[in-house]
């Protein structure tokens, strides 16, 4: 078996732009004063970003795809994956609308700023599809409106695959799973590097490598970034961790997996899940506007010969399924 960090989603945010006062200070450093700090000029900044993105993409023959609501972006991006194994850089840009925090500036009749209010609005987001030399396919999803909040989406299995090739390790990979490995021990050692003390530095390096030069530059050029000291900070939004078992015999895997599903499904219920995860000792918010956390056991069969077993506990999900013949 081998353990591997799977999907990683990092929130990238500009700290000064998270408060009304800080945003006003940043605008002054960008424009020299806040005389033009209004809805019209904020919209112009967003429009400048859109024009620059499309002009750059046209000049460098990078496809820009306008996606429909609820369209799965990763499936669209797979159609444009570069065929060259050594390709590095942006290979596609997907555009879609989604809710994001924006600033609404209200002025008095005399023209003075009365209030700067943070609200959630549907705006264009730009999904930069990037091929990184160390991490493979990564995605940076950036809001088109200031303060240009972003998310960096990475895949630990792709990182391990790239490092394994560099080390000459032979393997077969299906989607997010290694289905055949010559030396599972060596693969596990490579995967463990994402759990080491250097992992934070590796994540920061890949973010810094692309987010300013390939994404934010369309909103603020390098001179404007330096002038306003625009620097992102990062926090973990989502993380997935997987334990993978490889079998010599596919029938043995299937029998064991189905047996675990049957026994676990008959034994677990909602009350037992709450007991296992310590629900009674966790803080409870008596707020009717909040959605109650999800507690359930689910068995899904999305296609023939595929069973997915899930345990949901609030924001934590435990998922088990088979991949490949063994």
Q: How would you summarize this macromolecular structure in one to three sentences?
A:
33% of the residues lie in helices and 34% in strands.
Task: Describe this entry's structure for a reader.
- This protein is an alpha+beta fold.
- 33% of the residues lie in helices and 34% in strands.
- The chain contains 9 helices and 12 strands.
- The protein has helices spanning 20-31, 39-59, 73-78, 156-166, 184-192, 199-215, 222-228, 250-267, 270-276, and strands at residues 2-13, 64-66, 89-107, 113-132, 136-143, 150-155, 171-174, 177-181, 233-244, 295-303, 306-313, 316-321.
- The strands form 3 sheets. The protein has a 7-stranded mixed beta sheet.
- A hairpin with a 2-residue loop joins strand 11 and strand 12.
- It is globular.
- The N and C termini lie close together (12 Å).
- The model has no long low-confidence stretch (mean pLDDT 89).
How many DSSP E strands?
A: 12
Distance between the termini: 12 Å
What is the count of DSSP helices, taking H or I runs of 4+ residues?
9
Range of strand content: 25-35%
Low-confidence stretches: none
Class based on secondary structure composition and strand pairing: alpha+beta
Helical content band: 25-40%
Output the keywords.
single chain; 326 residues; alpha+beta; seven-stranded mixed beta sheet; three-stranded antiparallel beta sheet; 9 helices
